[in-house]
Amino acid sequence: MAKAKIEIELAALMTAKAAWLHDHGEPAGEASNMAKYAAAEAALGAIDAAIQCHGGNGFATEYGLLPYWGLARVLRVAPVNREMILNFVAQHSLGLPRSY
């Protein structure tokens, strides 16, 4: 759970940076993509930790965790999937050739 907390805070900081850049007219594509990637990974990590902490009960409908897993999983693929974010960062931040 502590790891999930750290990852959520990091995603929030990256989101704040992206918002600040956008609000000040700076290019925010890289920061926005990184924030989305971090948030999706943090969400999935948090719900996975919650399910693990509850053991077998994590899958019971009474605990209500499984719908959150589905929502968190969707964040990895929509509206932009992880691979496209990694492609963007590789191309724009690292100067690597376009890979798609």
Description:
- This protein is mainly α and 100 residues long.
- The protein has a single domain, classed as Up-down Bundle (Butyryl-CoA Dehydrogenase, subunit A, domain 3).
- Helices cover 69% and strands 0% of the residues.
- It is built from 4 helices and no strands.
- The chain is elongated, with a radius of gyration of 16 Å.
Task: Summarize the helices and strands and which ones pair or pack.
Elements: H1 2-23, H2 29-54, H3 66-75, H4 82-92
Could you name the ranges where pLDDT drops below 50 across 5 or more consecutive residues?
none
Binned, the helix content reads 55-70%
Radius of gyration: 16 Å
Q: List the secondary-structure elements in sequence, H or E.
A: HHHH
> What's the CATH topology label?
Butyryl-CoA Dehydrogenase, subunit A, domain 3
User: CATH superfamily name?
Assistant: Butyryl-CoA Dehydrogenase, subunit A, domain 3
CATH class: Mainly Alpha
Beta-strand content estimate: under 5%
Shape: elongated
In the residues, how many domains can be counted?
1
Using DSSP, what is the number of strands? 0
Structure annotation, total helices: 4
Rounded to the nearest angstrom, the distance between the terminal CA atoms is 36 Å
The SS-based structural class is mainly alpha
Rounded average pLDDT: 95
Biggest sheet features: none
